[in-house]
């Protein structure tokens, strides 16, 4: 087998992988790198999801990269995000470095050769190639793209209509005149329901329990003002990012210091659309306190507008079973349906479903302890991008990229080519905790998959805080010679 070698291989051409390629090209043009992407194009999440209305739930000033101004409305459609990424690729000459329809299936680290060897399948031809890399930059996201998570309910096979998962939305699905039930009330359901409310006969959002939503205009007043007075886009991007992050920090703080007050405000936002007669207590008052899960933003209250004008409705109940013509609920109520959409989440995918080994010993990711949520004990020359849940994912992708570039410079100055996180003697008896604290953040895909994920320690740098506001200071200042990173 012929084998090409690269200084760095990036796995995935979603927003993280394209960002990693940009940072490498801009900050380390001397390094030879390759991006390997299983899908036929860039975008990851934003090409996988093609359901009606697909859009971001965070603002693009912070979900966009820090280096490329966002000039559109804050909440963006998948098409707008893809266009933005396309510009990043074109403006920075990234295209020649990306190979699409190339799936990485195995990765082997050799301590003797001091490099990774990847088994890569060219999905166009079925041919398998071997590629080696000094360093792996894992940008594979957090869920399996091929298939979403659908729980099994009794009677599913009896249903005469069509069952669809939003992650694999069929191109030929025509909802005109159809009665649709969307199971779930997360960001996906909240996007999909208003998008189809006018086009199908009726859509019901069926939820076991309610979710928090925040409503507002899909506009940023500060950005609009700055544009009006002629400030250049680079400045607007930076200023508006800071303002949004400042406001989010305030909300996060309030979620813990005055949760009841915040909760009342969020519910008042919903009531403003649905009025006093609507049963908000049943359908829109979550059992948990705000911020335990991402709060979905509903631009211009479109979900509530659909409910108010009767095109959409909400059922808060449990599924007893599917029937030939819909769903029978625990309460005895029946929801007739022609199409059932299971907006029930993702299958967690750690390390891109790649079979990893280190010196021929199979790697069990769950046996490792994370270094700052980005590297792992015993795994040499690998960085893993896992963004924020509560702040925009990309903020962390940018921070990690700067960290990697700094680490590379540090290694070069020291004449080293391998870096592996290792527990110091003083860390060996530290308490090990789950990757994320389920009390603090608990979406289904994470709680279902927690046993597959690395653990974190109880002290720096072994913690994975998921806190942008501390990491933005800590990561750039991380001491690369504190004994936790071992260089060879
Ligand atoms: C519908 C939806 C809306 C979202 N909205 C937001 C939002 O508004 N704000 C926010 O912060 N987050 C949001 N998220 C989370 C979102 O997934 C991330 O923010 C971000 O898009 C992840 O980017 P990524 O590049 O890290 O991963 P992904 O977008 O998952 O891309 C990973 C890529 O890696 C490829 N890949 C994986 N394994 C392999 C392999 N073995 N070989 C080759 N290629 C591989 C995949 O094909 C994929 O293209 C949303 C998620 C979903 C599903």
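Q: What amino acid sequence fits the structure above?
A:
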């Amino acid at each position: 087998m012929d084998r090409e070698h690269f200084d760095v291989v990036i796995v995935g051409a979603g927003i993280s992988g394209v960002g990693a390629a940009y940072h490498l090209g801009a900050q380390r043009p001397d390094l030879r790198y390759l991006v390997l992407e299983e899908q036929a194009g860039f975008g990851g999440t934003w090409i996988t999801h093609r359901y009606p209305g697909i859009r971001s739930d965070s603002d693009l000033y912070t979900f966009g990269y820090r280096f490329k101004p966002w000039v559109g409305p804050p909440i963006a459609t998948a098409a707008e995000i893809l266009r933005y990424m396309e510009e990043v690729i074109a403006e920075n000459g990234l295209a020649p470095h990306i190979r699409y329809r190339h799936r990485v299936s195995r990765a082997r680290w050799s301590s003797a050769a001091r490099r990774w060897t990847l088994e890569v399948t060219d999905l166009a031809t079925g041919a398998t190639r071997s590629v080696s890399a000094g360093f792996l930059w894992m940008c594979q996201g957090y869920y399996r793209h091929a298939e979403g998570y659908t729980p099994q309910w009794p009677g599913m096979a009896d249903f005469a209509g069509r069952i669809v998962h939003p992650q694999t939305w069929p191109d030929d699905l025509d909802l005109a005149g159809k009665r649709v039930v969307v199971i779930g009330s997360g960001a996906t359901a909240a996007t999909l329901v208003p998008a189809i409310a006018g086009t199908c006969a009726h859509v019901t959002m069926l939820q076991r329990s309610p979710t928090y939503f925040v409503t507002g205009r899909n506009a940023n007043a500060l950005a609009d003002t700055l544009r009006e007075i002629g400030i250049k886009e680079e400045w607007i991007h930076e200023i508006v990012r800071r303002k949004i992050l400042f406001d989010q920090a305030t909300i996060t703080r309030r979620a813990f210091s005055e949760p009841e007050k915040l909760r009342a405000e969020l519910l008042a936002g919903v009531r403003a659309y649905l009025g006093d007669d609507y049963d908000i207590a049943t359908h829109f008052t979550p059992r948990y306190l705000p911020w335990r899960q991402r709060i979905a933003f509903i631009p211009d209250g479109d979900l509530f507008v659909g409910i108010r004008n009767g095109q959409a409705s909400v059922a808060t109940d449990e599924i007893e079973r599917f029937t030939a013509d819909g769903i029978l609920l625990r309460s005895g109520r029946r929801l007739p349906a022609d199409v059932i959409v299971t907006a029930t989440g993702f299958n967690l995918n750690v390390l891109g479903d790649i079979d990893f080994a280190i010196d021929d010993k199979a790697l069990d990711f769950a046996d490792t302890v994370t270094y700052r949520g980005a590297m792992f004990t015993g795994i040499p020359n690998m960085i893993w991008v896992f963004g924020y849940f509560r702040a925009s994912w990309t903020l962390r992708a940018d921070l990690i990229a700067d960290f990697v570039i700094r680490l590379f410079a540090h290694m070069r100055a020291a004449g080293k080519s391998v870096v592996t996180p290792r527990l110091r003697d003083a860390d060996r008896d530290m308490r090990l905790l789950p990757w994320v604290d389920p009390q603090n953040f608990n979406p289904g895909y994470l709680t279902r998959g927690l046993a597959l994920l690395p653990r974190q320690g109880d002290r720096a740098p072994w913690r994975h805080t998921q806190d942008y506001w501390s990491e933005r200071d800590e990561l750039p200042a991380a001491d690369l010679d504190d004994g936790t990173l071992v260089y060879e």
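Q: And what stands out in the fold?
A: The mean pLDDT is 95.
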